[in-house]
Amino acid sequence: MINNPKLPNKEEVNVYPLGHSESIKVYENKSDMDIWNAFNKGDEFAFNYIYRMYVIVLFKYGCQMCKDQSHIQDCIQNIFIDLRRKRGSLSEVQSIKSYLFKILYRELIRKSNKSKEEICKEPEKIQKNFSIEFSQETKIIHQENDREKFEKIQDAINKLTCRQRQAILLLYEEGMTYKEISVAMDLNEVKSARKVVYRALSTLKSLLQKK
Amino acid sequence: MNYKDYDIANFITDEFFIQWIKSPNENNSHFWEKWMAQHPEKRAMVNEAANLIRSVKYAHSPEFTDKMYVETFEQILKADNEHSSVKNSKPTPISSSSKGSFLFFIPLRGIAASVLVLFCLWAQYEAFNYRPEPVEKAEIPLIKRSNLAGQKSIIDLPDGTRIHLNSESEIEFPKEFSADFRLVRLKGEAFFEVKKEQRPFLVESGSTKIRVLGTSFNVRQKTNEPLYVALVTGKVRVDAVNGDQVILNPDEMLVMEKDGKFSKTGFDPMDVTGWKDNYLVFKSAKFSEVKKKLELWYGVNITFKGNPDKDWTYSGVYKDEMLENVLRGVCMTSGMTFKIDKKQITITNPK
Prior knowledge:
The complex is a heterodimer.
Chain A: H1 20-27, H2 32-40, H3 44-62, H4 69-85, H5 96-112, H6 116-119, E1 132-134, H7 137-142, H8 147-157, H9 162-172, H10 178-184, H11 190-210
Helix pairs in contact in A: 1-3, 2-3, 3-4, 3-5, 4-5, 5-10, 8-11, 9-11, 10-11
Chain B: H1 8-12, H2 15-22, H3 26-38, H4 43-55, E1 56-58, H5 66-79, H6 86-89, H7 109-128, E2 142-147, E3 153-156, E4 162-165, E5 169-174, E6 182-193, E7 201-205, E8 208-212, E9 216-221, E10 227-233, E11 236-239, E12 245-248, E13 253-256, E14 262-265, H8 269-273, E15 279-286, H9 287-298, E16 301-306, E17 313-319, H10 323-332, E18 337-341, E19 344-349
């Protein structure tokens, strides 16, 4: 299925290397599988499209796991270099975004010589990975009295485990399906992704009950 | 389960619903809009669920700049020809056994479901109990703090905001902020480190309002002087009395005249905000400025004897320094002399 990454403003397009905006036109109505196949066959427009559509969200996602921005930039560079080298023998991909999220996640783990547990260590860390901002911008104007409730939710949300926050962010911020979340989080089954989300929301509830 | 039997917990975990909120397209919009029209009683719940979904954001979201975009793209293409680095960039596949460690979930489906039901009941309760708050419950007592010349103070507000109040300045704030906003009134000069939260923070200085969420900035309004708002971090909006609005970015300073005319400039942080860290700063200051600053800072009275040198200016920075040492520094470069008699200072220019 095709995700809907936010397209940049029209006037921004010119600053990007030639051909990127054209690639968007060619590919925006194709399925992820078709685009991936074209890329696998060596179609440069398909590569441009993939880069154009996902590099910014990849970077943001990477920044949730590591504070060193240039390190994330390097990792993103590496995964694309590696994908280009493997063209011709790439396996099928149903959701490009979640696949890229997965390989970036693996690359960051590999580079940091840390285990998956360590990269997600919490909660003592000063700057938590995958920290969530629970923002209610439109709401504050209209329903001020809801504020206290939302503060509590915000509090509860940031008491979730790192993996739970990761799943919630993939679901709500990235708008991924459970299938995509299971790919991005390197889980074996879709069921597991659902479990993480359901658990997160139930924890939220129990925290809120405690008051 | 049919959508009409959905509670809020069902909605916030339903991928088709989330897809509609996050990335509406013809297909899902058509479905949900039609569904909403058929089930108007569910509208409040759907709104609640949609709000919750939209509110979850990355706390840190650094920008991938255009420069980074191009740089990375070029590096990737360049690497096509450099096979020597293949070994370095080849990811080692993670063995599937390492995945096991994440699957330690106890099968809690039943429990989770019942808790979700509770969650939904609570959420519904909250949703139906929405009632606009009475505008003014009771008069909240105001607290006033002021500094005389020679005094500076730090005031910590109940919301976590810290105010550095300068000499000859006054700040007024309620004992408890209202649910809607945090309003303080300032006369004189203060540096604000505003605690970020939902309620906007408003500084009223004269007839001008400065509005922020979480940020640090300096406000200075002395009698017969323009208003200066210097932003260090974050973002502020200044609402002038004539309805003009100015947005300030970090390192920008707003200078607003009494008649509402304004301009934006840069500023020297040391010069403008150094006072809060006890830096006494003179930057090409004329004698009148030096005199005024010293009087304020040390709470003294300075008289001048002799002929003033019109071209004389003074630059210097002092931290936690005694008045005597500052006067020594000021006078050393100019050949002036000084005499301290308690709070009365006399500076003499023998030339």
